[in-house]
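REQUEST
  id: r-88c1
  op: predict_structure
  target: histidine kinase
  payload:
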Amino acid sequence: LVALLLSGLLIVFTIFCFYYIIHTIIQQKKLTELKDDFINNMTHELKTPIATITVAIEGLQKYNALNDPEKTQRYLQTSRNELTRLNDLVGKVLNVAAFENKEVRLNKERVDIDELVNDLVASETLKTDKKVNVSYDNKGSIKYIEADKLHLRNVLANIIDNAIKYCDEPVDININLYKHNNNAVFSIKDNGIGIPTAHVKHIFDKFHRVPTGNVHNVKGTGLGLNYVKYIVQAHGGNVSVKSEPGAGSEFIITLPLKNG
Ligand code: ADP
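RESPONSE
  id: r-88c1
  status: 200
  body:
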């Protein structure tokens, strides 16, 4: 009986070891794939703006566009847009590096939320060539939110950026802000391509992107939503998403309100 028991245990142990090894190999493979995707995407994300700026500067030099104010303006605007993109990208990567070293410290202050959202919406809609309609309704008449202003702005910017990126024109974004259980709740809805159900629960993981190809061909890093989650949680809040392919997405951000 003891021998039977021991061999039973041995079998269980062997199965467990196999499972563990296979699981580790799969995880490792997934990580390698994620890393490869990330490097490919980053290469594209870095090369594209640099190439565009180079062409714009060459244009200014070669064709003596400086004598043509309209052309000059166009080249300069293009360079500026691309530099903003590069700056955003570098910021995202540096932010992730900072989280890994636990270096992010929040500088909380009383943030005038209408001012922040209206200003952000104005600059986000200027940044894109797509036709974008954004509505903002502060249903809870919330005046201030205790938050790190820069990070809160970046969080909302990431969600709005994505709404624009993963939508065909015309892009419709509805931002609603209301109070619930002493929290400020943002609902940010878009009419975009949506997220396949199997990916919804991974969407906030670092480097996770819905595979391109037949779904969309938008380049990115897979870092934005990981940043969003980190910052929202650092504020004591929570972020979630409801989405279906073809039916748009709704991101819900909950942030504690200090004084109700
Ligand atoms: P990135 O946009 O750089 O890939 P994010 O972390 O911001 O990285 O987003 C992760 C992934 O989630 C995206 O690659 C995309 O597949 C999906 N996604 C995010 N927001 C949306 C959205 N509003 N609509 C559809 N898909 C989205």
